[in-house]
Amino acid sequence: MTNDRLDATDRRILAALDEDPRMTVLALAQRTGLARGTIHARLERFRAGDALRRHSTRVTPGALGYGMAASVAVELDQHQLEAAVAGLEAIPEVIEVFAPAGQTDLLCRVVARDPDDLYRVSEEIRLCPGILRTSTSMFLRTVIPYRIAPLMDRDPGPQARGGPGGR
């Protein structure tokens, strides 16, 4: 499910879930004014697609003792991309990996307990198969935490409603 296929009903349900992810189907129906069957069907569609993150993303690394966060830019041997990704997946402190445009091949978001632990994590990344070079930037603090509500409040525009002419 891509963002351009979310209609107004989907957005109402997702906005309510963003406020309280533990809401039951009944509570969602009452909150949104929709039938329970509609809620249930939409939730199943969301789960089958990519509209909802996994529940484990609600746990903060700090709660687990990982108070430091950093990004690690990775340059790799393009022929060994799969091996590099497999190596990164084996490192628990690597919590996200992106493939950005530009000179960086992969951008890893990592967590660590302290500076020495960040050094260890950075070394584990550097030693993964296919990785040629890394550059680590430590995050000093979170200025704007992860958020999605402002996007849901925004008018989706004609593209999300089925193109220039709408539906």
From TrEMBL:
PROSITE patterns: HTH_ASNC_2 (PS50956). One of its GO terms (molecular function) is sequence-specific DNA binding. GO terms for biological process: response to amino acid. The keyword Kinase does not apply. InterPro entries: AsnC-type_HTH_dom, Dimeric_a/b-barrel, Tscrpt_reg_AsnC-like, Tscrpt_reg_AsnC/Lrp_C, WH-like_DNA-bd_sf, WH_DNA-bd_sf. It comes from the Bacteria. Keywords: DNA-binding, Transcription, Transcription regulation. GO terms for cellular component: cytosol. Residues 6-67 form the HTH asnC-type domain. The keyword DNA repair does not apply. This is AsnC family transcriptional regulator. It comes from Kocuria flava.
